[in-house]
Amino acid sequence: MRILVLLLFYHYATKNAKSYRTSNPNFILIMADDLGIGDLGCYGNKTLRTRNIDKLAKGGVTFTQHIAASPLCTPSRAAFLTGRYPVRSGMAALSNIGVFLFSASSGGLPTEEITFAKLLKQKGYSTALIGKWHLGLNCNSRDDFCHHPLNHGFDYFYGLTVTNLRDCKPGEGSVFVAGVRAYLATPLQLIGITLISLEVLHYIGLLRIPRGALRYFFLISTVLLGLLLIFFYTFRYLNCFLMRNHQIIQQPLSYKNLTQRLTEEAIQFIGRNADIPFLLFLSYLQVHTALYASKDFKGKSKHGLYGDAVEEMDWSVGKILDVLEKWNLNDKTLVYFTSDQGAHVEEVSSTGEVHGGYNGIYKGGKATNWEGGIRVPGLLRWPGVVQEGVQINELTSNMDIFPTVVKLAGIPLPKDRIIDGHDLMPLLQGKILQSEHEFLFHYCNAYLNAVRWHPRNNMQPNFNPCPLMYLLTGSRQGIGSM
């Protein structure tokens, strides 16, 4: 009888301990920018030193088929925060440019969208975004902040509202040069040739053109060229700035010790909220170009400035893990690491140095729906709840973080909209063995580009289009009528 009582007590105590550990946990969600899946040691890299990120993998779960909802920053981050395909929230462009490039853009994540930060804040969590936002700033005026992170559930913001661009760092060139060459070079050449030709024809007497018309034409050309030069001269000041909440604290942005500053902000936030539930979204600027690294890391890696930036980011992840240890928060904190999309493999500096990452065996990279553009690192650690050193080969998405975080916080999912992500906990704890994603849709901006099908119940794929169209539409009208 005594043994039975002891066993019952033990069962009750362990059950309560696990319940405590899973009740109102903390969340640290870490997102790199343009990091390739092949850049990390836990995914097979042998030359970059990422021991802290690898430590996350050893202490938790590694997803081998973790897919970003988009191969571009803005739509991918919108999907991550809302658990929905970016076409549902209007964060997928109809034009060639699929991201926000200017702080004055009136677009952004709609205020009616629900982020996990908004739901957790309502539950009493302290929430912070440190780093890159890239989902808009204002709507109708320079200070209405309708798209600002503080309007989407974050209590605290320290970082960039737009993104890190080459134009933000002197000497790194401009992302707009290619556009100028593509859209303005030919018109400017035609204008120049036209002016010279008219002047020659007028001089030799074959064509009489009023001098006033030539001067007027020349004036318009000069004004247009001047506006272009003003744009390049003022872009850095107007678009590259650092904010704390609603206040600009550095304009233009300085890259000196930037990762260290972001890390210190994250450490302070964790310390301030060690006794209450918190959500920290740490969104690194690295390794998006313009690349940068502090003097402690510059020139230390085997892969130039790109490798230096990766290794400094790994150092930062280590500091975050250390502070969790310091405050005895390991068992109460779910830590997740990913990238918003694959590496930008075509990036080369003005001096010829490769500034793009490595996507391993996968074809393509950022801005493409080839596997290298959308298959990203996915690491999740939660001691005592998630098994250590486990590899999951099932299909998962960065949209899955929304329902996972929301459900763990004890919050029901919104009923008034479609949530495309699925709760990861059943898969993480072995309650199910197959991903709940039967299909994942891949868009090139707002246009469907590819579909990934994960057949269930050992179903064999049948790629005959006519039966497939019948299955989808219930008719035999065929593709032409669709």
Please characterize this protein's 3D structure.
- It is built from 14 helices and twelve strands.
- It has helices at residues 2-22, 51-58, 73-82, 86-89, 116-122, 177-183, 185-204, 211-239, 258-272, 304-326, 371-374, 401-408, 425-428, 465-473; strands at residues 26-32, 61-67, 126-132, 156-160, 242-244, 247-250, 278-283, 333-339, 378-381, 390-397, 439-444, 447-453.
- It is elongated and about 90 Å long.
- The chain starts with a helix and ends in a 9-residue tail after the last helix.
Which keywords apply here?
single chain, alpha/beta, 10-stranded mixed sheet
> Which secondary-structure class do the elements indicate?
alpha/beta
Strand content: 5-15%
Strands in their spatial order, largest beta sheet? 6-5-4-3-7-1-8-9-2-10
Number of helices: 14
Query: Helix amount, in percent?
Result: 25-40%
What is the C-alpha radius of gyration, as a whole number of Å? 26 Å
Strand element count: 12
Q: Tell me about the biggest sheet?
A: 10 strands, mixed
Low-confidence stretches: 1-20, 467-482
Instruction: Give me the strand/helix succession.
Output: HEHEHHHEEHHHEEHEHEHEEHHEEH
Termini separation comes to 73 Å
CA-based shape: elongated
Mean pLDDT: 88
